[in-house]
Amino acid sequence: MHITPHKYFLAGIIFSGFQLLVTGKDDDPGKGNDNPGKAKPIPTNVTQAGIDLLDASHILHFLEVVDAFGHVSVRNPANSSQFLMTFAIAPAQATSQSIVTYEVDNATAVGLTFNSSVVGSAVPTGFAERYIHSEIFKKFPDVLAVLHSHTQEILPFANQVSVPLVAQMHTAPSVGDEGAPVFDVRTLPQSVLPDSALHDLLIRNEALGDALANTFSNSSQVVLMRGHGMAVRAASIREVVFSGYYIKQDATVQLQGILLGGGTPALGLNQREVTDTATTAKTLVGRAWSLWALQVDKAGLYVNDLRKGAAPSATGF
Ligand SMILES: *[C@@H]1O[C@H](CO)[C@@H](O)[C@H](O)[C@H]1NC(C)=O
Ligand SMILES: *[C@@H]1O[C@H](CO)[C@@H](O)[C@H](O)[C@H]1NC(C)=O
Ligand SMILES: *[C@@H]1O[C@H](CO)[C@@H](O)[C@H](O)[C@H]1NC(C)=O
Ligand SMILES: *[C@@H]1O[C@H](CO)[C@@H](O)[C@H](O)[C@H]1NC(C)=O
Ligand SMILES: *[C@H]1O[C@H](CO)[C@@H](O)[C@H](O)[C@H]1NC(C)=O
């Protein structure tokens, strides 16, 4: 491979960034390690997951999958009983100091992932709906990333259940060929959503998160949420971003097809096509990610202080 001096420069930045986080040997008191010599080192793969989590948050905003609301998470690569997601902040504004390590068991905050001086109750308030993530990670051990968004394009299909959302194109196999299942809080028993509880459609506890996780079907990686948005599961954080973006595109394409006179049952990919395009899509994620990471770098609004402007790594979480 031909390596230009420019690439050496970027590699140097990445390397020194990792050194800083892994060894904690900088003399910046703001780093938050009262005792850097004894600070637990952050595994390199956790740093890389953090880099991808920030890029994911920024890219999802750039691509208008999320707005001020919505959140994405990644299972902790060093401990599958935990996951990383930001505390309650708009995804576009996420930095390393917004990333929290949470328990899969109960969505309780362990501490800031990249600041060992902020632990437990000192962690700023998390998203009320972090149970979407904890319960999906709990139910599906193979799932390594989760996205929740209010993407407007998918809402007609969450609300008009007579028209199931199906995969319309080769970039959206995550939708599946049988119709994305719809989660409707009105169908929940009193034991999950009592009359006395808020009926604001939010997934505010383990019971609601569990009911949502149980709505996934084998043929789809997304659950549409009536009057609310969607939840997407994936095998990596880059894939959950790719899926989220193309689920949004898929909904637009299907709605346009309906306007042209198509309808129910909706025409889309068949099972064989879904299976095969899902295999191919995995090989396309990296190319899309490189472009999207460059776009958020140039946009001026987003700060990935873990990656510091260096090119994203070829493989990700
Ligand atoms: C870590 O958290 C402490 C306490 O909030 C803060 O003073 C410090 O600036 C943080 N460290 C970094 C690197 O932001
Ligand atoms: C990440 O690092 C931890 C600690 O070194 C290791 O146990 C784990 O297997 C690594 N995970 C991945 C996905 O490489
Ligand atoms: C993994 O996370 C669980 C839950 O926080 C914790 O009890 C356990 O000690 C962790 N394991 C390691 C190896 O850090
Ligand atoms: C949450 O789960 C963790 C890991 O199982 C456990 O150690 C902790 O006590 C639980 N916290 C609460 C508040 O239930
Ligand atoms: C789908 O099938 C697999 C194995 O057959 C199972 O483990 C999984 O939980 C099923 N359900 C969903 C919703 O993915």
From TrEMBL:
Keywords: Signal
Signal peptide: 1-24
One term under GO cellular component: cytoskeleton
Domain (Class II aldolase/adducin N-terminal): residue spans on this chain: 51-255
SMART domains: Aldolase_II
Pfam families attached to this UniProt entry: Aldolase_II
GO molecular-function terms, A-Z: actin filament binding
Protein name according to UniProt: Arad-like aldolase/epimerase
Organism: Mycena alexandri
